[in-house]
Structures are given as structure tokens and as C-alpha cells.
Design goal:
The strands form two sheets. A six-stranded mixed sheet has the order 6-7-8-9-11-10. A five-stranded parallel sheet has the order 2-1-3-4-5, sandwiched between helices. The protein has 14 helices and eleven strands. A hairpin with a 4-residue loop joins β8 and β9.
Length: about 350
Amino acid sequence: MSSASITHLLNKWRDNVVERIRKARRIAIIHHWDTDGIASAVLISKYFSSKSFSYYIPRIGLYGLEAINVQDIKAISPDIVMIVDYGITMKVIRELKSELQREVIVIDHHLTDLRGDLLCNPVCITHDEEACPSTTWLIKELFDAQQYASLIALGVVGDYGRYIEQSNLSDVIKNMIKEDGFSIDQLMRASQLIDSCYRSGDYAGIHHARDVLKHKGIRGILEDRILHRNLNYVNKEMEEILLNIEPTEVKEPLVVFEVETKNYITSYLGRELAYRYKDEVVVMVNYVKSLDLNYIYVRSYKYDLSKALKILKGKGLHVGGKSHVFVVTCRDRDCIREKDLTLNVLMETLSGD
């Protein structure tokens, strides 16, 4: 798709979204529980500051209709519902619209099957993840929200983690945050503090982090005692695991790990392992006791995983992600079938790289 076509698409989405928001009084925002989702919700509320927003966090670790508290949203009778940075499918969107009887706007950068005038996700059409590295970045492109540069950059750093320093975006992000006096290290620290809330299962902490970010900014996040307490708690488990974890299987380019954790540190741990094995594909099977769910986390900084992601979706697995990372959610603690299928599909699709 040409740059002119993308510009036309962004303009169309912008016009449609702004028209709906302009007419609305009450807006419900369902946002992902991580840094990019929280920063995106704050960015929307700042850009449309004259509107009344209420915020809803899906059940941590799940991406279906069952993760969304429909009754709580119905109780406030919103004029429209916005979903930001929460990589769900068209099927879930249709179910949600049917339950709420409201228009649903989606702003997201995950690789899903979304299509529609109010479903703003260029990655679904272009499959170019680098052009849209975060949902905050997409909001910038949609609404020309340049005045919130550090908040936009925080969303990018939240999704990239330590790899941001080696990516093509490193200099761009440094320039974006220079005026506010931030460093990439500070944004990574702020992201860790925010993400410690969902990793420890602290829903109140997620709401708290969003409120702090909205009213006190990134410096408020860096200084917040509640977030530091959560991060210290999460880091203790991370450090213990990283000291002892070893691959259970190596089949080039795959490096496989199996680990049980108390907290939902799947992405935190997976990113660290992927950073250690930059030239391979990390596959981590993680049973999270606090959620009673198993996750197969796959990340690579070298290989494109989008073919495998598409095939696994086609085979009916509960999977979502982007071109360099995806996660399979397993309802049963015993996920041998899903693990074997994931490994086989990865080997088949990566053999030509």
C-alpha cells in the first residue's frame, strides 16, 4: 500500500473518530493493562480533554469477551466505547457491540483481523509493524498529537523494552524526549514501574498508574511509592528465575524454556531471555499460578514471526501478537499439544529465513 493510500486511510479514520467523539458526552475507554495501553488511554483523554471518560481494564491475561466487564460499562450508559491497544479480533468486537448496543472505536497496532471505518489499525492492512511501533504512535499519526511527545515515546519504549536502544527508533525517541529532559533509561524505568501493576495482578495499581501519568506525568511515575513497591515485589521473582533458568530444548533457531511463576511476568521474563538470545527465537512456556493459565511466549529480534502467527490463528489457537512477538494462551495447564504445534509451525515457517 502506497504512502498516499495510508494517508487517505488515516484521514478517513480521523474524520470518523472525531465526528463520533464530538457528538458524545460519556466515553468508555477499555485499555490494555500495560504501559502502551495506559499511555494511550491518557493520551486520548488529554487530546479530547473536554469529554468525560471512564476507564475499564480487561481481565489480565485474557483477550476475549469474557475478559471485559460488560455490566460495569452498561451501568454508565456511554455514548461510545473506545478500545485502545487491546489486540482482540473482529469476532470479539461484534460480540461486544451486540452486548452494549453502542458504536465501538478501536485504536490498536497489534496484528489482528480488524477492518472497518472505526477500527483504526494500519498494521492489519500494511503488515508493517515498524511504521506503527506502538498505539501511542498511531494516536500521534491519527490526531497529530505532537505536543505529547514524551507520552508517545513512553508507549514505544514500553513495547520495545531494552531493545529500543538497538532499534532504528532510538535516535527518534531521544529527540522526542529531549525537550522534556528525559532519557531512554528513565522511560524504561517508568515503563517497568507501570507494568509492575499488571504483573503483580494489582488492578487498583493499574488505575493508580494511569491517574498518576495523567495528572503528574512521567516524573510522577518515577517518584511514586506504590509503583516502586510493586516493582520491587515483581523484580524479586524475576531475579530468582533468571539466576537459574536454562533452556529445556535447543533446535536452531529455537531456544525453548519452561518455567512456572507466581506472577504474570511472562512478557517481562520473555523479553529478557530474547535479549540474551538476540540471534535466535525464544519460546517460553510459562504457567502463571496466580492466573491458573499457561502461556507460550515467542519473541525474536531477528526473525519475522508473522507467518507462524497467522497459521496458528488459522488452526484455532488463542494467539495474538505482532511480527516479532506473539503469545498463545492455553486454558489447560497441560498445553503439550499447543506447544508441539507452535514449535512445528515455527520450524516450518522459519526454515526459509
